[in-house]
């Protein structure tokens, strides 16, 4: 992490405390704290990829900063104020801290926006009265997440091609669902994540199998076989090949699967990652009519 600035969004009290100065990134402990959070979330299977819309205000101010037309502090202020306005108008108002960083990820200059939700926790507190010290335990309402916790809202922008990686959730603002990062902050269009793509493919395959009277267990076993034998070798999952493998000999089912995958915005191809590998290596679960549960590796199915 080369640069970082912290803005406090105390939405419960209706106050935003915006910093004018960057934090001291020569502090090894601080740098390690931010670095660990970035490492933990950057390759998360829930990360989506996207690109800015032409009218994106975030892209406009980012370009200003990259061209040295505005300072890093001013650029970060735009991001923090944008988030603050949306969070304080949401149905579930939560206080948080926003950290805007400039860092190097895989040798690429990257801008990161990290949302740290404040937690309630207990801390010790020292008071002194009439020359006597009293040590107490008090509730603190602005505890930052530890490095073992994964943050749920973040964005990473490659400064060379302005490509986006982000993770976020929708919040309710005036009755409408708004993606806090994609819609409110970045103003970008995005692809669904690898995790969402793979789960959608599995769900659609099971649904189509049920419609055509095929075995759900066999469908799952065939999909796992395809991933293990083909997708891992090619390092990607191809929806057409999934259809051919899972619904071999069922032409209508195969086409129905492909059509429904398109409707769900699943990319024609998406990368393999640790999440997918873990899922395909998991045992198949079969429950008999009498409630007996049987777990076995997918390759045992045949």
How are the secondary structure elements laid out?
Layout: E1 3-10, E2 15-17, H1 28-42, E3 48-52, H2 57-66, H3 72-88, E4 96-105, E5 108-117, E6 119-129, E7 132-143, E8 153-158, E9 164-167, E10 170-173, E11 176-179, H4 180-186, E12 188-190, H5 194-211, H6 216-234, E13 236-238, H7 239-246, H8 251-263, E14 269-271, H9 274-281, E15 284-287, E16 293-296
Antiparallel strand pairs: 1-2, 1-4, 3-9, 3-12, 4-5, 5-8, 6-7, 8-9, 10-11, 13-14, 15-16
Task: Explain what this protein looks like in three dimensions.
There is one protein chain. This protein is of the alpha+beta class and 302 residues long. 38% of the residues lie in helices and 31% in strands. The chain is built from nine helices and 16 strands. It has an eight-stranded antiparallel beta sheet with strand order 2-1-4-5-8-9-3-12, with helices on both faces. Helix 2 packs antiparallel against helix 3 and helix 7 runs antiparallel to helix 8. The longest helix has 19 residues. It is globular, with a radius of gyration of 24 Å. The mean pLDDT is 89.
Task: Kindly list the characteristics that best describe this protein.
two-stranded antiparallel sheet; alpha+beta; 8-stranded antiparallel β-sheet
